[in-house]
Amino acid sequence: MVTTTSRRTRGARAFAGALLAGLTLFTSAGAAVADDPSASASPADEGADPTEAGTTFRTATALRQGQSGTAQASAGDYLYWVFPADIGQRATVRATVKFPGGEAKRSGSAWQIDVYDGLRRRQACQYGHQTRKAAADASSVELSCVLRTVRSWSEPWANDPLPGSYYVRLTVVNLPADDLGLPFEAEVRADSVDQGGAHHVGGSLAEPLVPRISATAASAAPRASAGEPEDGWASGWWTTRWLWTVGGGVLAALAAVFGYSLTRGRGRPSHVPHGV
To answer: Which helix (H) or strand (E) holds 111?
Structure first.
């Protein structure tokens, strides 16, 4: 004969299994979204992509994530773009240098991209091809730089990437003097992947590291063009760690209920009269 305690035990086990399966599916879905590059990349507006680049930090051309910027220049020029990166994003910068008319065959030039944060501190690349030399028969050179994940807060002495504007500088680093001024075309694009709460830390900046804009520049362009994401900066309080905290609390409460059901005993035996 199946006792009430046995039925309760089986019910508690079934409830625990269902809850655990649901939490597993939920966290797996969240991880899949975090690993999808398209989940955090901001789509470009309907307007045309910028076709010019700045020549200094102050005149850097603004890009949104997922938007391509192009420019035509001469070898020896410094080209600058700027894009926003927020908390938990790991940005990847890609640049392509094209040589019209086979100019690379004359120079065998070497090209490099450098990325700086809002404080103009150079940020190291985790991996990628930051510097490349054009082969003798090449018509283009492709460069890439994968940055570290942006943190919400950092110690003053550290060089950690923080939310704000990120500058991309493209230039030639090895070119004979006779080849200075050769024409080339450049294309730059920045995308990011959201790494989730695993890279969040306690604390947050009062404001993102975005350079101040003069009144003339602010009136001539929308605020988003200054390096702010279209949907605004993250507040800093939300993180996927909340999901793990809540899930852990639910599992702990369930384990306590299940343990109590196993240790409470079968109660008063049926043959023992009441009042004894």
So the answer is: strand 110-116
